[in-house]
Amino acid sequence: MGLTRKHFTVVFLCLCFTVFLLLISVSSSSSPQGQMETAASRSLEHDNGVHCSRERSRAAWKIIDEYLMPFVEKERYKISSRCRLHPENDLYRDQEQHKMHVDINEWRCGYCKKTFYEEKYLDKHFDNRHYDLLNVSHSRCLADLCGALHCDLVLDSAPHKTRCNPAAIGRNKHLCESLADSCFPVSEGPSALHLNEFFLRQFCDAHTCSGGRKPFSKGGKRETSTLHVVISVLVLMLLALFYIFMYLYRGGIKRSSQGLKHISKSGQKKRLKVIFMHSLNFSVEKTKIVQQ
């Protein structure tokens, strides 16, 4: 039993070390955008005439999907296709939907099933091999809305302070307010009015140099990240192993105590037998002496 406990302790320590390595790998591979492209890809310009940053378009859609759409769905409001926030107006939406994140270091093209080590190589593959699938005629560049949607907060892993430019702030706020009016016209009813006010509070009020209200102040949808899932699973595994270890450990102590009790009982029986034999021999000798 002692050997079994030693083996189990070694396995337990190895698992703890594996958990530590997994947490390091997951945290290092996670970023606000999840394997973003390098800075060189931020100004994407195709030779065929398309000038639209895929990275900033992805950041804009991430913000729309996380900080706007849950509230639109809650109101059961249908956004018009004329609204620039509509998915059909994202130049890269179809390609983004054909990305398959199979593993941490494995991305797969949904069109031709080719795999890539990083997302940026899959993006280049889309640009080179599947450009003809872009809806260039009807779609617009979602990256153009980044100023209104605060994309830099999603793109920058380490926010840095910069001097406030009142002119740029004014342009972004005007664009933000025009999005609110075009996507949620107040004349369309209570839901549109409520979403119009929500959009102004969620995105537009933060366009100021005073630093009063923060972007996304109304919150967004809660997503279970990969890191949280990994941590939860590993904690459950460690708890299960801990209880198994305690069960085996207590079982070994119990069996050891039972063995000691068995040995002590056997020793008592032997001592009683010896005493009985001595008494019997003494009685026999005494009888012989009396007879003589």
Automatic annotation (TrEMBL):
Residues 1-29 form the signal peptide. The keyword Transmembrane helix applies. This is TRANSCRIPTION FACTOR C2H2 FAMILY-RELATED. The chain crosses the membrane at residues 227-249. PROSITE patterns: ZINC_FINGER_C2H2_1. Residues 109-130 form the C2H2-type domain. Keywords: Membrane, Signal, Transmembrane, Transmembrane helix. It comes from Salix purpurea (Purple osier willow).
